[in-house]
Amino acid sequence: MADETVPGGESLAALLHEQRRFEPPAAFAAQANAQPGIYEEAAADRLRFWEQQAERLEWGQRWERVLDWELPFAKWFVGGKLNVSVNCVDRHVAAGLGERVAFHWEGEPGDTRTITYADLQRMVCQAANALESLGVRAGDTVAIYMPMLPETVAAMLACARIGAPHTVVFGGFSAEALAGRIQDCDARVVITADGGYRRGAPSGLKPAVDEALQSCPNVRSVLVVRRTGQDVAWQEGRDVWWHDLVERQPTTHEAQLFDAEHPLYIMYTSGTTAKPKGILHTSGGYLTHVSATHRLVFDIKPEQDVFWTAADIGWVTGHSYIVYGPLANGTTSVMYEGTPDTPARDRWWQIVERYKVTILYTAPTTIRTFMKWGEQHLEGHDLSSLRLLGSVGEPINPEAWMWYRRHVGGERCPIVDTWWQTETGGIMISPLPGITATKPGAAMRPLPGISADVVDDQGRSVGNGQGGYLVLTEPWPGMLRGIWGDPERYRQTYWSRFPNWYFAGDGAKRDEDGDIWLLGRVDDVMNVSGHRISTTEVEHALVGHPAVAEAAVVGASDPTTGQAIVAFVTVKGEAADDPSAGAVLVGELRNHVAKEIGPIAKPRQIILTPELPKTRSGKIMRRLLRDVAEHRELGDVTTLMDPTVVNMIGEKLAQTP
Ligand code: 6R9
């Protein structure tokens, strides 16, 4: 992997020379939730460590065993029973904290709402009653396709309360993508909104639901929150307004206990094939993992902190660190509906100042966008409330890390670079603020209770600056329990590369001190602005267009988005030779991909070419296309059927805007 570049453009060689270290400030260390000794304690008895974390939750019935492990299937807290929504809401109200703010919510147009734990309890109970009135029972799946609203959280917790696993589909996904997910998990009820605000304008969601449901005949009810007030089509008997149904329900609801392994949610994520995988998370272990990591990694003091995960609820980061982790810990969070540059590029810094945010958690792509906009947008805003910063979603390049530290953190806030995945449920590798001396660009060490390694092809541990594959060598409580409806794919995807370990799909290196640096995906998954998109998924969308003969898609490093999608396409007919027809077609293809998958999957560049580089056995050589897209020297071309093809493609690329 020696010549690889990581997102942000820094080379592995440059990372190896990164020498800066930042010791935890003494005052921070003195008050931190995680104190030295925690690693040794957890290492001495891993299961006991997790059991202690589970004891921080409220259980209706205690577990009999901490873990049943039949590789690759884990059961945590076997025999235990709890209710996730009671843990996130009711127990705090019962403890007298009903007036504590759960969310400072801010809409993009500037409207605000303050939701206390008591408010949230009423909302969740009403929504749970409403779902039951629509016939939703424990075990039924519910699809949620919503903007960032308090009702979105209430909808998720209401599902959890009645034992109905939810699948939240990111509002940026297309009708097609939504339909695929609804069909895969056979959801019968969809919760949505008329629309939400994005970039200063209302953007519709209900129309996409209407379109999706044309191919989802099993959906019987659509519950619609009124957010933007835009006109929506209405199907009597199927569609019902949230304010008509939910807000008329009783504000109490008796929660039942569910088994620790009862399904909590399914989150679809891109794999290496065209079909997204439904990652299944269950209740007791997941909640233990996200609440413990939220407390230790973000040093949460629920009486004082104002926590802000600036991510969408539709991604796992939102599930674990906007909803389940923070609420399980009784935290006050900020939730913001819209984009960072609406109405101006200092919107986030206004929010930090207004709510006195103490902990900010966001993605490198956003940090790089702020860098591009310039630090003048932060000036004049009082950011002195901040005491800790977090990063997630992709490798953070040292330059962005340093900018974050200097301009957002005022050189005083520790930074936690947190590595994890939809599949892991919660944070796995991260510094512990107060203990770990951080290095710009390194996720550092597996958390207490987590076992990870970096290994070569043969499964041998590497060290001293060598690169390899990241593996997780012991089960952990937040781990996925499988792929919805496809146990074989679960085994194949994660547990076959190395026989006894979980293969994460990420490259990593371990430095001389034993600290871990993540290097990006080693498979065909791209990471665009922290969103996982499979190359195959985009190829699939492109070849679905009538003009396209063949398509090959690669991720190329991009200074802002980490990776960007570059597509090489051969077309049927004349378009490839006729530049004006070609330009029109390229525009059409970009929109086609946006429609099939979502705007985030729009290729940055589409290069029309008469040929794709293929091996003699006919396999498209994506590795070479990646070299071309990155303007790198080409690797081995000897297996190519026609070596002149790559040069020609390189020339085409140079001519493509
Ligand atoms: C939480 C989340 C998972 C993939 C993962 C890796 C990349 C996430 C990272 C990171 C380097 C970090 N990733 N955090 N790479 N450093 N701190 O992002 O989940 O959407 O499933 O993506 O994201 O490649 O495998 P998900």
Describe the model:
The chain is an alpha/beta fold and 657 residues long. The protein is built from 20 helices and 30 strands. The strands form 9 sheets. A 7-stranded mixed beta sheet has the order 5-4-17-16-18-19-20, with helices on both faces. It has a 5-stranded parallel beta sheet with strand order 7-6-8-11-12, with helices on both faces. Strands 21-22-24-25 form a 4-stranded antiparallel beta sheet. Helix 5 (84-97) crosses helix 7, helix 11 packs across helix 12 (316-328) and helix 19 packs parallel to helix 20. It binds ligand 6R9. Residues 269, 315-317, 391-395, 417-422, 443, 504-506, 518, 521, 527, 530, 532 line the site of ligand 6R9. Ligand 6R9 is lined by residues 269, 315-317, 391-395, 417-422, 443, 504-506, 518, 521, 527, 530, 532.
